[in-house]
Design a protein that fits this description.
Number of domains: 1
Helix content: 55-70%
Largest sheet: none
């Protein structure tokens, strides 16, 4: 199948609602409860362990590299110590239990057992099987994990693969653009589509001084203006980054085909909207404030 059969942003539009449903468990009390039962109680340790466990009992350097926008000193406070509290395999099993509970609460039993969920799982898995492993540590690590039997968990697993596939490629583009992890977050927030500075600071470990220093560097480069908004150059930079990421992320969606991508987008959007309506995310998560 050729690239021309898909619109340039079709993969991005498809992946976005899948990513939303994937990410809901990070904001769910179920994840904290499941990992807390293993002895992992600090919110940052919960977040780091849940996503990094697929990599195995790695050190802080590997996690910082793979995550990109987390402050290394903060990562090192919890990694690798967290693996002595619970093994990665235990954490991965707890994560799946948390996802199961979260999706049952947000979507309801009828949606989880529906033909649409089974169809979405099949389509998403088919797309995800075409992802490339090279230079994609988080996608590749998650691709080594078994696919859950239940359709809603298989769908979540596939959504995770597609999220990490795009994310791994995105980091390469950010590096090529000369944006470090925090600068990438500052510019993304300035678009109005990223997490607010408050959420970035609390989840990624950056202080207000760190944020301000990154903003100053971006102003010096003509990417932000004096008010912290993107300049024309900054807007173009962010658009170019997303377009380059689209190119690196095209293989799963070319493999699925235009008709499959369109159908998965419809199904994924419906599930994501239902989760949002059920309160999957904090009201103040996204924006410039």
């Amino acid at each position: 199948m050729t690239t021309a059969t898909l619109e340039p942003q079709a993969g991005r539009r498809c992946q976005s609602p899948l990513n939303s449903l994937h990410a809901a468990h990070y904001f769910s009390p179920d994840l904290g409860r499941e990992l807390g039962a293993l002895g992992i109680t600090h919110p940052r340790a919960v977040n780091l362990a849940a996503r990094a466990a697929a990599l195995g009992p790695v050190g802080a350097g590997a996690v910082t590299a793979a995550f990109y926008n987390y402050k290394h000193d903060v990562v090192a406070r919890h990694v690798p110590a967290v693996w002595s509290v619970a093994a990665p395999a235990e954490i991965l099993a707890a994560r799946v239990r948390a996802v199961d509970a979260t999706l049952r609460r947000l979507l309801g039993e009828e949606a989880l057992g529906s033909a649409e969920m089974a169809e979405a799982a099949g389509l998403a898995l088919r797309a995800a099987e075409a992802g490339g492993r090279g230079a994609r540590p988080l996608y590749s690590a998650h691709a080594d994990l078994p696919v859950p039997d239940e359709p809603h968990l298989a769908y979540w697993h596939a959504a995770t693969l597609l999220r990490e596939h795009r994310g791994d490629g995105h980091l390469a583009v950010l590096m090529s653009a000369g944006l470090d992890g925090l600068e990438a977050m500052v510019t993304h927030t300035a678009t109005g589509r990223g997490m607010t500075p408050t959420w970035v600071s609390s989840s990624r470990g950056w202080s207000p001084d760190d944020w301000g220093a990154a903003a100053d560097r971006l102003r010096d480069r003509g990417i932000l203006d004096g008010a912290g908004e993107l300049t024309e150059r900054g807007v173009t930079l962010r658009e170019d980054i997303e377009q380059e990421t689209d190119l690196l992320d095209r293989a799963p969606y070319e493999h699925l085909g235009a008709q499959g991508v369109a159908r998965l987008t419809v199904l994924g959007t419906a599930f994501a909207r239902a989760a949002l309506a059920a309160g999957a995310f904090p009201a103040d998560l996204i924006g410039k404030g």
